[in-house]
Design a protein that fits this description.
Layout (H helix, E strand, L loop, with lengths): L2 H23 L4 H8 L8 H20 L21 H17 L3 H6 L6 H20 L1
Helix pairs in contact: 2-4
Amino acid sequence: MNSNAMKTAAGYAAGLIFGLGLAISGMTDPARVLGFLDVAGAWDPTLMFVLGGAVVTTFIGYRLVFKRSAPLLGGVFQLPTKKELDGKLLGGAALFGIGWGLSGYCPGPAIASIGGISLPLAAMLLTMVLGWFAAKRLG
């Protein structure tokens, strides 16, 4: 199997594992996410534990990966070099948070939920795609 096919297969496998994790943890249910954000009402702490698990996994994973001199399926590690906060980053983060709070979906769970499409999910996906095009044009 050639290198590009291996990279593609690894990408699909990672996406499948991520999607299964979202589904198993209930994070594809927008009511669960909105319940987490409802700190003054019927608060649901599930998302905190899912995010905590992701932080621990990432912490351990980065330490293991960076013991290697190069990635398994690539030539060099590609890490972000920009470290300052700017208006684009803060504005994008704010829009992401507002959209997540209004819909209960962020991009990963939204894509994982596409099999059970509903009007709110379709609206979120449409505005997400429009946001990508707007960001590219404003770039």
